[in-house]
Amino acid sequence: NTVIHWYQQKEGKAPQRILYYVSEAKVVDDAFQASRYTVENFSRQKLCILTMHNIIPDDTATYYCAYWRSHCALVRSYYKVFRTGTKLIISDKGNSPPANSEILQKKHNNQITYVCLIEKFYPEIIRVTWTDGEREVKENVVKGDTWKPEKEDKYSIGSWLTVPAENKDKTFHCTYQHESGQKSLPTKGIYYILFCLMFVTDHILHRTAYLVYIVLLLKSSMYYLIVLFFIYR
After folding, report:
1. In this model, does residue 221 exceed pLDDT 60?
2. Which of 174, 176, 170 is nearest to 186 (CA)?
3. Residue 126 domain-assigned?
4. How confident is the model at residue 45 (pLDDT cuts 50, 70, 90)?
5. Number of independent structural domains in the chain
6. Is the pLDDT of residue 216 over 60?
7. CA-based nearest residue to 117, from 208, 201, 219, 207
8. 106, 137: one domain
9. Are 68 and 78 in contact (CB under 8 A)?
10. Torsion angle (degrees, nearest 10) of CA 227, 229, 232, 233
11. Percentage of the chain with pLDDT > 70?
12. 95 assigned to some structural domain
């Protein structure tokens, strides 16, 4: 008997409901063409699947499912629960795997910070996770937003994990999943040192930090000396 709602949200605009689905029937809002959407319900698996037909560039958006949940049965109070959403990108550029991916490390006091840098991929949708063996590590992990230079059409992202220094011999993995494929990078065998890492943490007080730019990664002592030469000059 649960009513499932589907929403479309275009960038910079409010979410707009496409349809709702109840009792094996869909009711499409006036702004959308009913024939373009098919809904399937698998109640035993608790799945509701929206299929879109005849995709056009204007369909680029983030799509959400939602349903009403009872807050207090005594007073019939409800609130609508949204899931995290699926971003749909329609482009003729195809997909490009990351041109480079690596882990850098920096030891500070009694902690080690591992920075996982993934560069120049398209489209920008990517999932980055840290694992300790088979277990996903979620504590002390910060994932930045994707960014791209003004004159490029490929994106980069950074994520970092901070662990106590006594875990220096432990192997962690940074794994990314992208439309072009996936890859797992181990922390052992890292020889690069992170010299400069610039990041913005606008919401750090609210336990959310965003890595915005990694502007300089020096990969060898020779390159480092060359940069210092020009700086002091």
Report:
1. no
2. 174
3. yes
4. confident
5. 3
6. no
7. 219
8. yes
9. yes
10. -120
11. 79
12. no
Report the C-alpha gap between 8 and 140 in whole angstroms: 33
In this structure, what token pair is assigned to residue 216? Answer: 């300089």
- 45 and 76 part of one domain: yes
Q: Is residue 94 part of a domain?
A: no
Q: Which domain holds residue 199?
A: 190-232
Q: Are residues 119 and 161 in the same domain?
A: yes
Q: How would residue 212 be classed by pLDDT, with cut points 50, 70 and 90?
A: very low
Answer yes or no: are the C-beta atoms of 127 and 177 closer than 8 Å.
Answer: yes
- CATH number for the domain harbouring residue 128: 2.60.40.10
pLDDT tier at 228 (50, 70, 90 boundaries)?
A: low
* pLDDT tens digits along 87-101: 999 888 889 999 999
In this structure, the answer to whether residues 82 and 17 fall within a common structural domain is yes
The amino acid sitting at 82 is F
Q: Is residue 184 part of a domain?
A: yes
Q: Could you tell me the pTM of the whole model? A: 0.63
Angle at 101 (CA atoms; ends 95, 104), nearest 5 degrees: 155
